[in-house]
Amino acid sequence: MTITITAFERSPDGGMGLARDTRVRWALEEAGLPYDVRYVSFQAMKEPAHLRLHPFGQIPTYEEGDLALFETGAIVFHIADRHAGLFPTDADARARAVMWMFAALNSVEPCILELVIARFQEGDRPWTPERLPLVKERIRQRLGQLATRLGDAEWLDGGFSAGDLMMVSVLLRARPSGMLDEFPSLAAYVARGEARPAYQRAFADQLEANTGVRPAG
Ligand SMILES: N[C@@H](CCC(=O)N[C@@H](CS)C(=O)NCC(=O)O)C(=O)O
To answer: Which residue numbers delimit the GST C-terminal domain (predicted)?
Structure first.
């Protein structure tokens, strides 16, 4: 059955791979599933046709036959649930992989997003200089806790799973601020994720869609 996802017609990050379609592309690549992409403009995302698929007028969405999904957590879970490669077979290990997906989206991504909003959407507000250090401190605290748990392990819980896919995707959003590099073990963890062939394909595809250029290799 054909899978179709949506992505920005032109991503605000210019193809850095930070738009959330990249994590869905990555999951599809890990699972070895072909897919189509429908590119939508900011205006089209807020129009009825897209709002029927995504009530909040955002990307990405996922369509497969009669099934239509939004929210990257639900989409990646669905892919991992139905196809090999992203969830361990052991039931307890699988539950922990799901836990890490939730942790990425619920306990790590919000503070990173807060910084993105503080810098790019509210950067001109008079209170921003006072607020930024507080926002950054919350990120530092969370990344420090995560680094402690990761220790010198390769992945969060044994082998690579959808939990790592989501955590790496979320951490990548902290890199432009320089804060990821304050935690060398997390930076190395992210680099391991980026080195996976499935990530490389996903990244190259979104880069080409945004810039017309395909990275060498
Ligand atoms: N929680 C959602 C967030 C979706 C989201 O924020 N998408 C961004 C792109 S990465 C978007 O469409 N932004 C445009 C907008 O909100 O108007 C998910 O994980 O899918």
So the answer is: 90-213
Instruction: Check: CB of residue 107 under 8 Å from CB of residue 142.
Output: yes
AA identity, residue 139: I
Asked if residues 77 and 45 have their Cβ atoms less than 8 Å apart, the reply is no
Query: Cα(89) to centroid of ligand 1, in Å?
Result: 31
Ligand 1 atom closest to residue 42's alpha carbon, by position in its atom list: 17
CATH numbers and ranges of domains, the chain: 3-85+198-209 (3.40.30.10), 91-196 (1.20.1050.10)
- The DSSP secondary structure of 63-76, one letter per residue, reads EETTEEEESHHHHH
No. of helices (H) and no. of strands (E), the chain: 10, 4
The closest alpha carbon to 5, from 33, 32, 30, belongs to: 33
Q: Examine the pLDDT at 20 and tell me if it is beyond 80.
A: yes
The identity of residue 59, as a single letter, is I
pTM: 0.97
Distance CA 211, CA 217 (A): 17
Helix (H) or strand (E) holding 51: helix 48-53
Q: Is the pLDDT of residue 214 over 90?
A: no
